[in-house]
Design brief:
The chain is an alpha+beta fold and about 180 residues long. It has 6 helices and 7 strands. It binds the ligand Nc1ccn([C@@H]2O[C@H](COP(=O)(O)O)[C@@H](O)[C@H]2O)c(=O)n1 and 2C-methyl-D-erythritol 2,4-cyclodiphosphate. It is an enzyme of class 4 (lyase).
């Protein structure tokens, strides 16, 4: 099993959409970025790349590359899902937090989790999104931007060969290496 963490910040700007977890949220401002500035998706991407020791978002999707100008971060997430699959990793779960003084995000959380799970081809109960304010403190508290944090847990097909409990309950990940196959 491998764990990864991710963190990202984007600042607010006029005339931009506010996109979090692939959901366009009605608000007076949006986040600034080369991409759609989906700060939640970016933290999750870094958590997934970190768990797989595959570097970080800027290495894979440079903000100097015009092909990522305005790109949907859900597309970047799909690309990361393909990379992980190619390396034999399975995403066990993702937990994440959006830190925003405003707007209230509670009602959008199920849709954000659905979008993220969809992009990663995961059941929705493997993805959790939380939201918190920083009680008016710091740059998020002053409403200057939004930050997000995420953690991700990965297993690889080989993990199933070393854990008796997993071998007996779920051999599908073994690809022939499990003694129950
Ligand atoms: N942008 C946000 C921030 C918070 N929430 C919800 O409110 C709860 C309380 O937040 P505190 O920062 O005051 O602890 C939090 O647990 C979230 O459910 C939100 O929806 N949107
Ligand atoms: C996602 C990318 C891709 O253009 O652009 P930004 O929206 O600027 O996001 P950031 O988290 O600052 O850096 C990663 C970039 O590579």
């Amino acid at each position: 099993m491998r764990i990864g963490q991710g963190y990202d910040v984007h600042k607010f700007a006029e005339g931009r959409d506010l996109i979090l977890g692939g959901v366009t949220i009605p608000y007076e401002k949006g986040l600034l970025g080369h991409s759609d500035a989906d700060v939640l998706a970016h933290a999750i991407i870094d958590a997934l790349l970190g768990a797989a020791a595959l570097g970080d978002i800027g290495e894979h999707f440079p903000d100097t590359d015009p092909k990522y100008k305005g790109v949907s971060s859900m597309e970047l997430l799909k690309h990361v899902a393909a990379l992980l699959e190619e390396k034999g990793y399975v995403v066990e779960n993702i937990d994440s937090t959006v830190i925003a003084q405003k707007p209230k995000l509670l009602s959008y959380r199920p849709l954000m989790a659905e979008n993220i799970a969809g992009a990663l081809n995961l059941p929705v109960d493997k993805v959790n999104v939380k939201a918190t304010t920083e009680e008016g403190l710091g740059f998020t508290g002053r409403g200057e931007g939004i930050s997000s944090q995420a953690v991700a847990l990965l297993t690889s097909v080989g993990d199933y060969c070393y854990d008796d409990r997993i071998m007996q309950n779920d051999c599908q990940g073994c690809k022939g290496c499990c003694k129950h196959d």
